[in-house]
Amino acid sequence: MTECSQYKYIHNSKLRNTSDFKDEYFKTGLSLYEVIRVINSKPIFLSEHLNRLDNSAKQVGQYIWLNYSELIYKIELAIRKNGVREGNIKIVFNIHQNNRNFYCYFVHHKYPESDEYKNGVSTVIYNAERRTPNAKIYNHELRSYTNTVIKSPDIFEVILLDNLNCVTEGSRSNLFFIKDDQLVTAPDDKVLNGIVRGKVLEISKKKGIAVLKENIEYGKLDQFQAAFLTGTSPQILPIRDINAQSFDVNHPLLKLLLETYRKELSLYVDRII
């Protein structure tokens, strides 16, 4: 089974059948991509995603050859042709030698269940670093490994550990810790600056919540009271444990952030409908 779901996908300017899609398209060359949440048939935080895509291209000396209006048209076309109200849509710019190809398609998604928001999720550590952490680039080797681990019903996410023995982010999410009613997260230059991560930082600023951006040593995880993931699919999701280290999934600050984010997301969706 490929990662492409639904009925139709877009390749450059053509609408094609999902049955023709091949994951091998992205095993060669450089692939810049974004995964965007769709709610009520509308792409969420679209401008933030497209701005990050442009930044990713600049980070690796490339450019996005479709303009903003063209991208919006193709994304909305894929949503309309597949009749999707809720899901994740992926856009990919693949560059291989002199060939440039654009893809837009829905991917199989896994949203947390209500009991996972209530009880938190389990995660495991994996020694890995992204070569260009600020650029969202397809990494086949890392994705293959983490996909295998995440297939386990007991593991929701893989947490990356760098060569300094510091935890940085999840394989497909960002990572926050709570200590003494303040947030702690890895420095901006060590991680992909996720869209929901940015929303958490905005909420924290409005609420007067202190945020420390610093290296987080794996051996000192027991100093933190709570931890959570942020991302397109998980949104804000409590972590129950990282390997053998447990965390409080009912921390008041974590609950405040989750409730505030959900309210702001609901207002955002109401505005764009």
Q: Please tell me the CATH architecture of the largest domain by its name.
A: Alpha-Beta Barrel
Percent of residues in helices comes to: 25-40%
Q: What is the alpha-carbon Rg in Å?
A: 18 Å
| Distance between the amino and carboxyl termini | 33 Å
Summary, kept brief:
With 273 residues, the chain is of the alpha+beta class. It is 29% helix and 34% strand.
Strand and helix layout:
Layout: E1 4-11, E2 14-17, E3 30-39, E4 42-43, H1 46-59, H2 68-82, E5 86-96, E6 99-107, H3 114-119, E7 121-127, H4 140-150, E8 157-161, E9 166-170, E10 174-179, E11 182-185, H5 195-207, E12 211-213, E13 216-217, E14 226-231, E15 235-242, E16 245-246, H6 252-272
Parallel strand pairs: 7-8, 7-15, 11-12
Antiparallel strand pairs: 1-2, 1-6, 3-4, 3-5, 5-6, 8-9, 9-13, 10-11, 10-14, 14-15, 15-16
Which keywords apply here?
alpha+beta, D-amino Acid Aminotransferase, Chain A, domain 1, D-amino Acid Aminotransferase, Chain A, domain 2, 2 domains, ten-stranded mixed beta sheet, six-stranded antiparallel beta sheet, 6 helices, 29% helix
Describe the protein in words.
The protein is 29% helix and 34% strand. It is of the alpha+beta class and 273 residues long. The radius of gyration is 18 Å and the shape is globular.
